[in-house]
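Inputs:
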Amino acid sequence: MVLLLGLLAVLAPGLALTPAGAAPADGDQPRVVRVGTEGVYPPFSYRDPESNELTGFDVDIVRAVAEEAGWDLRFVEAPFDSLFPALDSGRLDVIANQVTVTPEREARYLFSTPYTYSRGVVVTAADTDDITSLEDLEGRTSAQTASSNWAEVARNAGAKVQYVQDFGPGVELLIQGRVDAIVNDNIAVLDYLATSGTDEVKIAGPAGEEVLEQALAFTRRDTQLREEADAAIAALTEDGTLAEISEGYFGADVTVEGGTTDVDVQASDTRGRWEVVQDTAWPMFVGLLKGTLPLTAASFVIGLALGLAAALARLSSIRALDWIARFYISVIRGTPLLVQLFIVFYGLPQIGVDLDPYPAAIIALSLNVGGYAAEILRAAILSVPRGQYEAATVIGMDYGQSMRRVVLPQAARIAVPPLSNTLLSLIKDTSLASLVLVPELFREAQVTAAATTEYLPLYALAALYFWVVCYVVSVAQGPLERRLSRYVA
Amino acid sequence: MSELIEVRGLEKSFDQPVLRGVDFTAAAGTATAVLGPSGSGKTTLLRSLNVLETPDAGLVRISDARLDFGEPPAGKAAYRQAVKALRARSGMVFQSHNLFPHRTVLENLIEGPVQVQRRDRAEAVEDARALLAQVGLAGRDDAYPAQLSGGQQQRVGIARALALRPEVLLLDEPTSALDPELVGEVLDVVRDLAQQGWTLVIVTHEVRFARDVADQVLFLDEGRIVERGGPEVLTDPREERTRRFLSRVLDPG
């Protein structure tokens, strides 16, 4: 890890470093407030099927609060389990995503006045008849999001918890019979039932009698922001704005205690399957152009440079360089890319290295490519016969010249086929960047799949996009190989 | 300074001693042939002259470049400078040509002059074409080494070494990797060079060729010069070991 940090220190100056936390309001400038939300949790936080704009009950609430409080909002969409780490590491100022107030969370975060009062329900497959309450979950398996309070509720009821990324995939597991139940908010479940029109799952019963409160979450430092939010919520309750937003979504006012027993949820998405696929194809293509391809290009170029440096260090007669390079390669190849990505994005801010999503993803992916490319390049350099070095030496070339003019051009020919494998892996690995808040191709597919439950067609479309890009790359490999081999008889 | 090459007390061990104190000199414009059984140290001797091998002790001087391995200059930079100077005064032809396979014939020739000596490219190209004509490969500028026969490759190797305008040309068994029918064309080129007055040091097994071309013959065995003299060393050797070697080479089986 020391080496990783060292390399980061070398790379970091070239990339955008942002100070932790947004600067407080300065004079007349409205304070920039970064709001974390899932974007895949209808009807609270999702993309409007027509416009692909972020919308939903929580989104509308936080927009109203911002207008009242004079904040300049910036939305950041991320999986629920990423929201709290992002808040902790100073990448977010507030979470607006039906965060339930619990004692554990209150110990770590500040909460606004609640803006939703809801109840938990137990969801099962339609043909399950031996689960009707929380008590029946004892010894059964329940699908939950890891950092959600509902996971806690299910665990406390004695259920074995199977972790999923959001509600939609949990329902799929339920339908497939891989889990027995899901505990979730009644409004979210009603929305899912309305949108999907499914009769394969049902609300089996209440998850306890308790009424739960959902509120905006802030870091413990940010008392000022919390106070501004509370003042705004009080004013918006007073003038009926909150009630109006709630009526619009649920036909009832869920913003006051006792209003949630009889909600009427409209389907948040009523499009047919092919309509969904057609509407999502373009945002996915944009994700490909703006996320997948630039990430791939930047990471591959930087990764190759790192790999070459590491390969030359491995071949160096200076012991220390060799050992540093060995350690780097070993760490990169011996740890999962996902872990590397999380260390760079969520871990480093804790020691003051705070990177934006794109630079963080590029650094993690580059370091990863570098580790694999190093060994490929080392083998390729070693494959150049010793006589070539001698010939370069006797015509008076120094190390740099012999590498650049004699060895590397010949090594390139050997390295291209395995390096193109690395490139193909990289293209596909960029999909992991969605977990560190980079909006790329697969993220777009996930967002719509969550809102519409059209998993198969949307993920198949994502696969098709990746496959086409990889196919183009592998086709380009041929001419490149021929060009580099033109001197071979 | 009448002698262009001076070697004194050269010693080199790998696992065991390979050179055990070699001395010789060679005058400018002469051809020196180095012969001896395999393992006698002749290739190591040649590779010591441009420091492809680093001798353990002894002195090498080519023209005004001089390096005493027993008492090397103080400091890495000064040592490197001395090595560089020796290499700048010599050109080398390898047993297996070691042409740059990814560069054309012409590019192989101008690589050193343009990249290392920083000579004008147009001038280097003109020089290179003249050298190619001299080794009988005019017009093959754009061929890649792999498209040439072994003999042609070795002639390009000679031209590449000459393109640097060295004071001494070192040839390490230039024909031993060739098919027998290709040996002649390479030897003809070397013979021409000798006649034109190039200073040559040739490690070779071609006894008849050495007899024809060499002004000086060094016979090495077990890391020592056993016999040193004119070409008559190869017709009328004084030493028993030389005689035995010659009879084996000239009359095998």
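Chain A touches chain B at residues 385, 387-388, 390-391, 393-397, 401, 405-406, 409-410, 413, 486-489 (CB under 8 Å). Flag for discussion at group meeting.
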